[in-house]
Structure formats: C-alpha cells, structure tokens
Amino acid sequence: MRFFLYIFIITTLLHGQLYTFGNKTFYLQRQSSYVYKDENGKDIKIKSNFFIKLKKNVDIKIILHDYNITIDKQYSKQLYLANSEYDKNILEIIQNINNDENTLFASPNFDIKLQLR
What we know:
The protein is an alpha+beta fold. It is 26% helix and 43% strand.
C-alpha cells in the first residue's frame, strides 16, 4: 500500500510544469483542459484562445503553419487573438510560440471574473 502512495505522489509532482510568460515564471499543475493549480493550490482558469504579438515584418502565416493555430481576431498588424486546433496542453503550445524567434510574446487569455466589493 505504501508503494502505491509513493507512486501517486511522484506522478502528481511530475505533472506540474514551470511556464514563463513575460518576466514571470509560474509553476502550474494541469487539472483539466483549461484549469491549472498554482503552487498555492489556487485554481487558475484560462480560455482556449491566447494572445500573440509578432515581431515587425513577420507574416502571421508562418506561425499559423508551424503551430497549426487559427486566428480569432486581429487587433493590429502584430497583435492577434489565436486559437489552437488541438486539445493539447494549451500552455505548452503558448510556451512554444512564446519561445519562437518570430514572436515578441505569446500569453494566455486568463479567465478572470471581476467581483464587486
């Protein structure tokens, strides 16, 4: 029984990953497709779409082809709201695009609800 408990703890720890967006690094553990837990146990919800800002004179078609994503909305020649066609780890896709030499940044679209005081 003790063996299975150790296996459970180890596999739980292995599912968490470090993600860097902008200047901040986050440890997040995937709970479901769009829900993650941070290191404090707080649920972080993200939407299925995300933001991409390209470097000047970079064609969005390069990013679309390389990462198999679609554009939901274009805000400027460099800023887009994109969506992944895969039901894969969305933060992993965003992290890969963020590390691409053609992008200035890629960032999750956090699902934030405002509350009145």
